[in-house]
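Let us work through a complete example step by step.
Step 1: write down the sequence.
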Amino acid sequence: MNKPVVFLDADVIFAGAAAPTEHGASHVILRLGEITLIDCVTSTQVVTEVERNLAEKLPDKLPTLRLILSRSLRVVPDPEPQELTPYKGQADLKDLPILGAALQQGCRFLLTFNIRPIRWSVPPLHYRRSPYGVPDVLQRRRPAHPAASR
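Step 2: predict the structure and record it as tokens.
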């Protein structure tokens, strides 16, 4: 069985690490990654952002984050600047490495609480927003990675 490959943005990881209970959507998603029902992926840039925000706002949750990183997430390197060229214009410049990392890893899902900066130029895109505080889900049938069209 192929597991869904899911890219987690900083806000989802932050919410999971800062969750006051084990019942929040972000925490549950991270737990699904821990028990290997899904393959949770994130990038070095995202981890740096989460660490910085937790250190500033909730420093006592940093050990929880480190545990999450070791058990639930596969951290991949940020794409090189030249690898981002095919994705220019699809996201704000600061978010472009996140989008590039997700697509390079073949992620069919990108979980985030904020999708405004992402402007997909390659259809089809399926978008669903839940009113229950569940992270937004973006699904692409095929990644927009340049190698996919070869």
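Step 3: interpret the result. The two ends are 26 Å apart (CA to CA).
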